[in-house]
Amino acid sequence: MGSASGSRSAYHHGDLRNALVAAAVELASDGGPERVVLREVARRVGVSPTAAYRHFDGQGGLMYAVKVRGQEALAESMEDAAARVPATWDPGVAAERRFTALGRGYVRFALRRPGLFRSAFCRIPGAEGEPRDWTEVPRADGEPRYRALGLLTAALDELVAHGRMPAHRRPAAEVTAWSTVHGLSVLLMEGPLSRLPDEQSDAVLEHALSTVLAGLAAP
């Protein structure tokens, strides 16, 4: 759990915006998007609300910055899981392993950091920069946004390229895969599956991932 003193110690003159975002991410990690209040963030960093408002156009601007950080952390969790996939000489097997590993990293991030996960997908009415549809992937300037979607898209393309998924199943396959791991994340995080022991939770996750892969690979 983050502390006010920790946030203040991270603040250096000229880097107030990043310090404010870091404090907001701490609050989101502790209790989800509901905990992110600009005045509380300013208090944690040790500045006035007026100083904080110079860097954000209100609560929505701050929350959008937290959302971007949450999305980036989610993508990093997915990449970390994929990086641990055992090497293999078969590119088709490697593509399958990467696909399931990305899903594993997605769900495990939700269970490890539920508050930030919820913040990464919260709706921010009127916030600038929000994608208008699910197909929008990272911009050329490198802003994270929904980089997790870009990772999933690349993994699905690899499945097709290496003959592990028929091309006719490729259109909109992101929706099937994404909704499965996201829905399972919510069920395990705060739904009826949240009380499962870790061993059973892992088994449910692996079964869901293998089922999705089998469906995408079907002729």
How would you describe what is shown here?
Helix 5 packs across helix 7 (114-120), helix 6 runs antiparallel to helix 8 (147-161) and helix 6 (91-112) crosses helix 10 (198-217). The chain has helices at 4-10, 16-31, 38-45, 49-53, 59-83, 91-112, 114-120, 147-161, 173-190, 198-217. Helices cover 65% and strands 0% of the residues. The N and C termini lie far apart (49 Å). The chain has two domains: 1-56, Arc Repressor Mutant, subunit A (Orthogonal Bundle), CATH 1.10.10; 67-217, Tetracycline Repressor, domain 2, CATH 1.10.357. The protein has 219 residues and is mainly α. The protein has ten helices and no strands. The longest helix is centred in the first third of the chain and has 25 residues, at 59-83. The protein is elongated.
Quaternary assembly: single chain
Amino-to-carboxy terminus distance: 49 Å
Highest-level CATH class of the largest domain:
Mainly Alpha
Could you tell me the number of beta strands?
Answer: 0
Question: What share of residues are in beta strands?
Answer: under 5%
Q: What's the CATH topology name of the largest domain?
A: Tetracycline Repressor, domain 2
User: Sheet bearing the most strands, described?
Assistant: none
**Can you tell me the CATH superfamily of the largest domain?**
Tetracycline Repressor, domain 2
Order of helices and strands: HHHHHHHHHH
Question: pLDDT under 50 segments (min length 5)?
Answer: 1-10, 132-144
SS content category: mainly alpha
How many structural domains are formed by the residues?
A: 2
The chain-level mean pLDDT equals 86
**Overall 3D shape:** elongated
The Rg value, from CA coordinates, equals: 19 Å
Fraction of residues in H or I helices = 55-70%
- CATH architectural label of the largest domain: Orthogonal Bundle
Number of helices: 10
